[in-house]
Amino acid sequence: MELVHSYQVGLNELCTERIDYFIAASGYQRRSTFLAEQVRIGDAKKILLTPADGQNPELQQKNEEVFAKLGFLSLNTLQNERLEIEKILHQICNETHCKDLNILVDYSCMTKLSYASIIDFLIRNDLPNERINLFFSYTPKQINTLPAKIKVKSLQPIVEFNQKVNQKPTSLIIGLNSNIEPVKEVIERISPSRIFLFVPRFQHDECYHSNISILNGELIERVPSENVFKYPANQPDQIISMLTSVCLDQRLDSNVILIPHGPKTFALSSILLTFRYPDIRLLEIDQSEKKVQDEGFPANDPIIVKSVFSQEEDY
Questions:
Q1: What average pLDDT does the structure give for the chain?
Q2: Protein fold of 2-141+300-314
């Protein structure tokens, strides 16, 4: 299938859609169950991905109990996350006799690999459905901007493309958050010719942008001001537009590396972009330690992106 387009929709619009499947992930944060408890989606089949997080097993267990009461079928993805997701998607797409299939994905507590694998599966496979609409929903959390001293274990591609690295200079595009050390280490490892920084601003927390800017002040001062972008983390449409503008300009004469660090709306926007332009390398920072424990109370209404996939001849 082909990714036709992605655009932001409101919660009210989501509630008017027929949802065939609802895929969520259990996690250690309190926002994990927020969407499932707020939205009534009729007869949709509900699937819960249950990776072992280990940060707050008591809260994760409570979340899983809530999901069970709401009718979710639990799927353990601990052993092979990508393979288990592909299995369930194969079943959904091939056993559902719908030309148009609507799938709601709450990625608030999912790993990047999980939601990237969902997109990758749809694009790589010839499926019987004429059109599949993915509704990606993200519930913002009350934000913790305490700096975390976390080292980089490795840099890994989130999705493998057949990418040829040539002798062009490297342009590094990277999102910022309170985890300062990994960003510094990545820049040191890659030694890019150009650096572009994306600094998030949340509508529900006006202080977040200034706090992140202060924490990353030393790095921001090293980068030309025209290469530092303040982006609205609650508006994926604008994030995709800003990223596309920078990436398409740089890929003409550079190898572009995109690091989707920061809020998950930035990560999803980055992933969607690289599926359109697979020569852009998308790398994830594999950290040597877990993040600072954060209960992640929900802070605002979900932010929803509708991504439309279709058979190529249909558009």
A1: 89
A2: Rossmann fold (3.40.50)
